[in-house]
């Protein structure tokens, strides 16, 4: 029972921290756009952004106020690396 409550508390804290860094939340503007490292972060949390975006129209997967190519590069690198690493977690059959 104690482990379950600790896991629940850790999950809630993690979700709150991730929620503060989601794209489309108003953290960026044309005079201070999201850059390369923000693109990496947004790519890693894209699945969470997608799910939360279903319930909140202000949350998007992609930050519209970005630096352009460098943000895109970071975003796509993390999407490919993040979803590609899921394959490493699978058990090999046969």
Automatic annotation (TrEMBL):
<feature type="transmembrane region" description="Helical">
    <location>
        <begin position="39"/>
        <end position="56"/>
    </location>
</feature>
<keyword id="KW-1133">Transmembrane helix</keyword>
<feature type="transmembrane region" description="Helical">
    <location>
        <begin position="68"/>
        <end position="89"/>
    </location>
</feature>
<keyword id="KW-0812">Transmembrane</keyword>
<keyword id="KW-0472">Membrane</keyword>
<protein>
    <recommendedName>
        <fullName>Lipoprotein</fullName>
    </recommendedName>
</protein>
């Amino acid at each position: 029972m104690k482990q379950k409550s600790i896991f629940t508390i850790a999950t809630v804290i993690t979700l709150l921290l991730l929620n503060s860094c989601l794209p489309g939340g108003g953290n960026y503007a044309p005079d201070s756009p999201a850059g390369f490292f923000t693109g990496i972060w947004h790519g890693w949390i894209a699945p969470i952004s997608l799910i939360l975006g279903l319930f909140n129209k202000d949350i998007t997967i992609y930050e519209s106020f970005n630096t352009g190519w460098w943000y895109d590069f970071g975003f796509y690198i993390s999407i490919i690396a993040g979803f590609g690493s899921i394959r490493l977690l699978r058990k090999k059959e046969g």
